[in-house]
Design goal:
The complex is a heterodimer. Chain A is of the alpha/beta class. Chain A has helices spanning 2-21, 44-59, 76-85, 99-108, 133-147, 162-178, 195-207, 221-228, 257-269, 296-311, 339-343; strands at residues 29-34, 63-68, 90-93, 113-117, 126-131, 152-157, 183-188, 212-216, 232-237, 248-254, 276-279, 286-288. By secondary structure, chain B is an all-alpha fold. The chains are: A alpha/beta, B mainly alpha. Chain B: Keywords: Cell membrane, Membrane, Transmembrane, Transmembrane helix.
Chain lengths: 358, 305
């Protein structure tokens, strides 16, 4: 989308001009953030910005933060390098598509520390981090199966990539664990963010007999479509209760604040090392919004599952995991699929009666 | 409500904003001005209408604010391309960028606010007709307005003196000027009309379609409206057909996915575009007449030249 790139470039230049203007205090640690969307998206980028604000609050005048929003992935190198050049010593790049540009800039600026979200390429001064959202999806799968009257639950997906596919599988395995006969229908919006189309996708599911909607797209539209029909759904990335107070059962909330504070502290203390962090409910990187609009027994079940996942007693992808054709997936982890296997998942589990678009 | 009815109703919702925005742009282009700022005007219409509707708790004021925002954006564009004879493509793109940015700013305090649905108006008697009754006679005001708008624009362009003037200005502004026709004034009105339509379409998006505002929610619909005008060969009736085919294909491909036919979703997602192009191509072949853009489309007019 070239027009968005122009927009992003304008936004980038403006933000950089602002940041350059405020360079003055020498002692402060300057931290930069690159967002793929607008901070007002009420989803992914919004949650990262909440993390940035938490860092400012935690460290006061010891730090100074700058963010550049709506940076197109193809044009991100310039924005990242600009931050590195203007004295930012810790830079968070918060979209998968920023991986190569971040790596390139990291090599050029060995004294700057970089943190890239959801990627897998690291360097001595480049860490990676992500969150195990699929843990939350197992819980909402259980809730969905309990709450569904029709026995068919729905899922609005963005793109058939491993991150989304593993979420669908985890959701379905959770649902299956309370109702072995549960059915699922998946509709791909082929967009991360198109509220009207996401709403249409949810309506199509509802029209075809689905009564619980889960989503892996970024707007509250599917949840709201469920509310308009008197059905239920789940919030995505942030607590979307205000958009659908009667329909939101819970939400899988991204919480980057603790991680950003920890990493900032590491830089200030001089203990920062290049690492790979993939935390879930236990690490508090994934947080469940309050369980609402459901009977007490369902709520209790959800809380128990949440506690079990946190304590490590329960793993959504515990072995054996069966593929659609019934064949068993090789168990490379400790009694469950390995992180590597989950991060590259490209198959549906047994019971999902649909073909995964490849 | 049967599933068939439900699908048809969703199709109407998906098609209406495209139709309204495209009809507005059609009038602008027929006067010889290419306004690529539809997406920006749409975003402004969506943001301002939602902000006003929430602030005053009135759908009517919301719609009025949305249309006004569209007109205001169009006025900025008109100042550039008519007042200063600036490049229309550049000005239009700038308008889109301005609109997307400004709408984010105006809408920011209203992210997360909620509005109740706009109630459909049912026409007594007619809405009881099986199958098509609810489809045609129990819709919200926007849908009726979009239909009336299409008919009115078609009649205006083909049957009225003023419509003829507008078309001649679009075909050849130098000759039209030589004949004493008010080139700039007609173009100004056409641009403002296009802005009002885009604003209305934006209001429909945020007040009826999704019922919330968030930055970038127009998601490229302005560009689709622009493309529809071209593929419909600048004819109001064909714009209507194109908008509905696009809306229908969009909704039906989602249903096809939910029904698990096993066709790759990426392919299904392309269907709306392919179907619309194909249908409008067939229409133009059957029509058998050479179809071209208005002769002066996109070129600036300076009276003394």
């Amino acid at each position: 989308m070239s027009f968005r790139s122009i927009l992003g470039a304008v936004a980038g230049v403006t933000a950089l001009a602002l940041s350059a203007g405020s360079a003055g205090a020498q002692e402060k640690l300057k931290i930069g953030f690159i967002y793929v969307g607008p901070v007002g998206d009420y989803g992914w980028s919004h949650q990262h910005d909440i993390g940035r604000k938490a860092v400012e609050k935690a460290f006061g005048d010891k730090v100074e933060t700058t963010y550049v929003e709506s940076v197109p992935e193809a044009d991100s190198e310039r924005a990242i390098e600009q931050l590195a050049r203007t004295g930012h010593k810790l830079i968070f790049t918060t979209s998968f598509g920023f991986m190569e540009p971040t790596l390139k800039v990291a090599k050029k600026y060995p004294n700057v520390k970089f943190e890239h979200a959801t990627g897998f390429k690291r360097a001595p001064n480049l860490s990676t981090y992500a969150a195990k959202f699929h843990e939350g999806r197992y819980i909402i799968g259980q809730i969905a199966a309990k709450m569904s009257k029709s026995g068919t639950i729905g899922y609005v997906g963005a793109f058939p990539i491993p991150e989304v596919v593993s979420g669908i599988n985890s959701y379905f395995l959770g649902a299956q664990s309370v109702n072995p006969n549960i059915k699922i229908k998946v509709v791909w919006a082929n967009s991360w963010y198109d509220p009207a189309k996401e709403a249409d996708a949810a309506k199509a599911l509802l029209d075809q007999g689905v009564d619980i909607i889960a989503q892996h797209t970024d707007s509250p539209a599917p949840l709201q479509a469920a509310e308009a029909r008197g059905k239920f759904g789940f919030g995505q990335a942030s607590d979307m209760e205000q958009f659908a107070p009667k329909a939101q059962l819970t939400a899988i909330v991204d919480n980057w604040s603790d991680y950003y504070i920890a990493r900032t502290k590491a830089v200030l203390d001089g203990t920062w090392k290049s690492e790979d962090t993939w935390g879930g409910l236990a690490a508090h990187m994934v947080v469940m919004a309050p369980y609402k609009n459901m009977p007490d027994d369902v709520k209790k079940m959800a809380e128990e599952t949440e506690a079990a996942i946190k304590s490590g007693k329960l793993n959504p992808f515990k072995c054996p995991v069966l593929k659609q054709d019934g064949s068993q997936v090789e168990c490379k982890g400790d009694g469950a699929l390995s992180d590597e296997q989950i991060l590259s998942m490209n198959f549906y589990v047994k019971g999902i009666d649909d073909k995964l678009p490849q | 409500m049967t599933m068939f009815e439900a699908i048809l109703l969703t199709i109407v919702t998906a098609s209406t904003p495209l139709l309204i925005a495209a009809i507005g742009e059609l009038v602008t282009e027929r006067s010889g001005v290419l306004n690529l700022g539809v997406e920006g005007m749409l975003a402004m219409g969506a943001a301002c209408s939602f902000a006003a509707a929430v602030t005053f708790d009135s759908t009517f004021l919301g719609v009025a604010a949305g249309m006004l925002a569209g007109v205001a954006m169009a006025a900025v564009f008109a100042l550039a391309v008519l007042g200063f004879a600036a490049n229309q493509v550049g000005s239009g793109l700038a308008l889109t960028i301005l609109g997307l940015g400004l709408s984010g700013l105006i809408g920011a305090p209203f992210v997360g606010a909620r509005r109740n649905p706009v109630e459909p108006i049912s026409i007594p008697g007619l809405s009881d007709i099986p199958l098509i009754g609810r489809l045609f006679f129990e819709q919200d005001l926007f849908v009726y307005a979009s239909m009336l708008l299409t008919v009115a624009v078609a009649l205006y362009l083909s049957k009225t003196r003023s419509g003829l003037t507008l078309r001649s200005i679009g075909e050849n502004h130098t000759s039209a000027h030589g004949l004493g026709l008010p080139v700039l004034r007609m173009r100004l009105l056409a641009i403002l009309f296009g802005g009002a339509c885009s604003g209305l379409a934006g209001a429909y998006l945020s007040l009826v379609y999704t019922r919330f505002w968030s930055s970038g929610m127009t998601a490229g619909r302005g560009w689709i409206a622009l493309a529809l005008v071209v593929f419909a060969a600048w004819r109001p009736g064909w714009v209507l057909v194109g908008a509905y085919i696009f809306g229908a294909a969009t909704v039906l491909q989602l249903h096809a996915q939910a029904a698990q036919f096993g066709v790759p979703s990426q392919l299904l997602s392309a269907v709306p575009y392919l179907a619309t192009i194909l249908a409008l191509l067939l229409l133009s072949i059957r029509h058998g007449r050479a179809i071209g853009a208005p002769g002066s489309l996109g070129s600036p007019f300076v009276p003394d030249r």
